Amino acid sequence: METYKTTGVCAKEIQFEVEDNKIKSVNFIGGCPGNLIGISHLVKGMEVEEAINKLKGIPCRTKETSCPDQLAQALENYLQQK
């Protein structure tokens, strides 16, 4: 299980697990529960790079980032660490 501390969003942390380059699970700590559970279910089983391409750069209202964008950043960080 990987842990990523978010910045600039309501969720404080993202916990995720990757197996064979596919997202096995995602759990957001804090934030908007319904939306974040939905995102977690949508990306489950998705290739890491595909999730990054779909989520990267999504803003939240006037913020330059969002919880989906933070997940993309967490996954990019994971790939760089590998």
UniProtKB/TrEMBL annotation:
EC number, UniProt record: 1.17.4.1
Domain called TSCPD: residue spans: 3-79
InterPro entries: CHP03905 (IPR023806), TSCPD_dom (IPR024434)
Enzyme class: oxidoreductase
Pfam family, one: TSCPD
Single biological process term from Gene Ontology: DNA biosynthetic process
Reactions catalysed, as given in the entry: a 2'-deoxyribonucleoside 5'-diphosphate + [thioredoxin]-disulfide + H2O = a ribonucleoside 5'-diphosphate + [thioredoxin]-dithiol
Residue stretches spanning the membrane: none
Keywords of this entry: DNA synthesis, Nucleotide-binding
Protein family according to the UniProt entry: Belongs to the ribonucleoside diphosphate reductase class-2 family.
Record's protein name: ribonucleoside-diphosphate reductase
Native source organism of the sequence: Turicibacter bilis
